[in-house]
Amino acid sequence: MHRFFLAALLLAGCHADYSYVPIDETLSLELTSPAYGAFLGDADVVVEGKVYPADAIVHVEGVALEDLSHGAFHAALPVDHAYRIVDVEAWHGDQYLRERVPVFSGHDPASTWPDGATGRLLPAGLEVLGAQLGGMIDDYGWADMISSAMPSYESEFVSFYAVGASHDPTVVVLEAVEGGIDVGIALNNLVLAYEVVVDVYGYTWSADISFGYGLIQITAMANPWLDDAGIVWLELSQADIALDEPDAEFGDLEGWVVEWILDLLNDYVSEPLGQWLLDFVLAEFGVFELGGPFAFEQDLMGTMIAAELLELSGDVEGLALGLGLAIDEPLAEIAPSIAIPGVDEAPDSQAVLGLHEGLLDIMLGDTLLGLLDQGMDLGGFMGEMIGGPMANLPGGDDIPDNDGWCFSIEPGDAYVVRMQEGIDPLAVLYLPDLQVDIETMHGSSCDSWLEASLAVELGLGVSDDGSVIGIDLDVVEGAVLDYRAEPGWDEAEVIDGLGGFLESLLSLLGGMIEIDLGELLGGSSDPLGLGIDLQPRVVDSVPLVDDEGVWIEGLYAVSLDVFAED
Questions:
Q1: Which of its termini does the chain have fewer beta carbons within 10 Å around, N or C?
Q2: CA distance 478 to 476
Q3: Is residue 197 part of a domain?
Q4: pLDDT tens digit string along 36-59?
Q5: Are residues 271 and 165 in the same domain?
Q6: 97: in domain
């Protein structure tokens, strides 16, 4: 009986359907952290993910991870530059996968951009402005106006008639004080010329005489203010005047006549001179319109940049300014509440701006990324612009016969602008994942040849005279994502050659994106029409710190010379 059941079982086993299910060992790599283009502040970058099969080999930036729990992996890396590219590789047998994720230190400057800037006209700038205002006063016709105001005198025996006034160039000294600007106007070597006619008992003499003053000093407080229409005014208060003793010349007149005329001139000219000069200054310049509104709009390669002066006040460090700025959107109606730099940040400059790097981040993001985003199909002679450099790369001998090249650049969404200390460069646009795709052209179709991700840094440099800002491109690293050449090529050599080619190609954009600071003022050295010659030049840049000496993230003090000097 037992033998019967055993035979039955054996017979049944011979007819059982056993199907083989192979184990799927297709390599997969999932990177769950970090997020692409994340801003990490001061934190390390946390690298997390999962690989399958669990026994696959995982490298993070070239370092093998030892402990993988069921294929899960974890690592932490510092971000000690403006950005870091997290490069994760996985192998299983002859299978290979790679993920590259750029991240940034600090915070996104576009998200903290305050829609404006602050500034200050510093004592060195006030000194130059004073010199230009002196010239402006002279050009305004000060001497002619004084001449027209000079009194004359007529009597039965003696008369004197105003001939005119002359003086040396006016000197204006501006000194920053709390609440405004102390103004000193020095009228040097003022000479009042008269013709005197004496008629005594039938005898008539006439002669030219003059009153000379070595120095006439007018002092006042200039209070700057901005009206609702954006017009800037200077209003003088606490005005006073001081005159040197006059030096009179009477020509060939007789002594008794001189004494007589001198008494008359003292009564009618010298004594009231100070008051009518002061009245004249207050009448002409007591409330003086500097113009405005101080605003401009400029189209920079399709991006509209607008600026307007919104606040104005004086203090001991100069003339403080609050500026509204906007890029492709309406201007804010109130000035930004950010720190105003001063003399400490720019001790030898005429002016200084408190500039947030968010302005450059948004502006360059709008302009440069559009210029860099290129795609073109090139055949014939133009195709050799790409074909020659490609043939010179390692693996270039394997290029198939073709009718030309298809070439594209995509800068990607991961980018940031960081301002720098100094002006070489003033700022850098970091593009850690600029994608380059180069394909061979065959008729109307294109076949993949080389794909790479390049870390590109675009330096915003300043010309030697400080008046022009230009771009310098540098490819600092990269990775070959796909290359159809036969194995044996070295990735570093391919990236180096491709980077050199790209640097040469994109250097052609340099002239297209130069920013002439004078052009931002409308191309005029006197955009305000006041006779004040403006020639802006960038001098330096330093991080802007708070009262405790801690950097205010994103803010820099950019020092400028704004006035032309003789």
A1: N
A2: 7
A3: yes
A4: 999 999 999 999 999 999 999 999
A5: yes
A6: yes
Backbone angles phi, psi at 481, to 5 degrees: -90, -30
Domain shared by 216 and 272, yes or no: yes
End-to-end CA distance of the chain: 126
**Angle at the Cα of 115 from the Cα atoms of 110 and 119, rounded to 5 degrees:** 115
Q: Give the pLDDT score at 11.
A: 47
* Among 144, 171, 8, 27, residue whose Cα is nearest residue 92: 27
- Residues 122-137 as b/e (b if ≥16 CB within 10 A, e otherwise) read bbbbbbbbbbbbbbbb
Q: Which amino acid is at 378?
A: L
In the block, residue with structure tokens 């950019």: 558
279 and 130 assigned to the same domain: yes
**Residue 97's pLDDT is what?**
95
Cβ atoms of 120 and 114 closer than 8 Å: no
**Spacing of C-alpha 32 from chain mean position:** 37
Q: What is the pLDDT of residues 358-397, one digit of tens each?
A: 988 988 887 778 778 888 888 887 888 889 999 999 999 9
pLDDT in tens, 337-349: 888 999 999 998 9
Residue 367 is predicted with a pLDDT of: 77
Q: How far apart are CA 56 and CA 5, in angstroms?
A: 48
In a shared domain, residues 241 and 134: yes
* 449 neighbors 480 (Cβ within 8 angstroms): no
Under DSSP, the state recorded for 44 is P
Residue pair 184/207 in contact by the 8 Å Cβ criterion: no
Q: Based on the domain organization, do 270 and 139 belong to the same domain?
A: yes
Task: Based on the fold, state whether residues 467 and 371 are members of the same structural domain.
Answer: yes
Tell which of 58, 74, 104 closes a domain: 104
Residue 525: CB partners within 8 Å, gap ≥ 6? 518, 533, 534, 535, 564
Q: How many CB atoms lie within 10 A of CB 431?
A: 24
Same domain, 45 and 144: no
Secondary structure string (H, E, C) spanning 501-527: HHHHHHHHHHHHHCEEHHHHCCCCCCC
CA distances to 142, 240, 308, 436, 491 from 456, in Å = 59, 62, 34, 11, 17
- Assigned token pair, 141: 């016709």
Q: What stretch of H or E contains 255?
A: helix 255-265
By residue range, what is the domain housing residue 100? 25-104
